């Protein structure tokens, strides 16, 4: 594994310990399985889509959960029992194994919707920056009102 020296970042950024934890999380996720395959698309400046190829899974087999900036997609295929035991494959290339895939979401990224069509799971997301976090121009010589100071 490569070692990354983050000391130049610590000199330039305040709160870069958060950045270090993100790099550590990325290093851990490299060890993650490549199943199921997925794409991450940029639809517009603040809109994203994750598309996962989950052939053989139904809507009831898939769980999508967001907790503390982590999007977790879990697939648990229910075993059909007797019907699967009687099948004899000459070649089995369609994987039906259970999976769990996690994505680290950026600040203020919200999951809008999820849809499944033709074996593809689409999850749409958007970055919604609150007004308090948006840049604003301060006029020189202006005085802040009391309620603006508390923000």
Task: Give the neighbour order of strands across the main sheet.
Answer: 1-2-7-6
Strand count, sense and barrel status of the largest sheet are: 4 strands, antiparallel
SS elements, strand count = 7
Q: Tally the helices: what do you get?
A: 4
How much helix, percentage-wise, in residues?
10-25%
- N-to-C SSE string, H for helix and E for strand: HHEEEEHEEEH
The CATH architecture assignment of the largest domain turns out to be Sandwich
Instruction: Output the radius of gyration.
Output: 22 Å
Assign the CATH topology of the largest domain: Immunoglobulin-like
- How would you describe the shape? elongated
- Model regions low in confidence, pLDDT < 50 over at least 5 residues: none
Report how far the terminal alpha carbons are from each other: 43 Å
Q: Helix/strand-derived class?
A: alpha+beta
Number of domains: 2
Look at the structure and give the CATH class of the largest domain.
Mainly Beta
Rounded average pLDDT: 79
What percentage of amino acids are in beta strands? Answer: 25-35%
Family: Belongs to the small heat shock protein (HSP20) family.
Keywords: Stress response
Domain SHSP: 29-143
Protein name: Hsp20 family protein
């Amino acid at each position: 594994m490569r070692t990354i020296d983050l000391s130049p970042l610590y000199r330039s950024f305040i709160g870069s310990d958060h950045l270090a934890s993100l790099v550590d999380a990325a290093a851990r996720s490299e060890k993650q399985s490549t199943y199921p395959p997925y794409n991450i698309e940029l639809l517009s400046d603040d809109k994203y889509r994750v598309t996962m190829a989950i052939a053989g899974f139904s809507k009831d087999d898939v769980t999508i959960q967001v907790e503390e900036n982590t999007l977790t997609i879990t697939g648990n295929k229910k075993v059909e029992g007797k019907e699967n035991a009687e099948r004899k494959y000459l070649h089995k290339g369609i994987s039906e194994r259970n999976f769990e895939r996690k994505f680290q979401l950026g600040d203020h990224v919200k999951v809008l919707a999820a849809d499944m069509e033709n074996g593809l799971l689409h999850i749409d997301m958007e970055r919604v920056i609150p007004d308090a976090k948006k840049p604003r121009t301060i006029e020189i010589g202006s005085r802040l009102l009391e309620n603006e100071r508390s923000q």
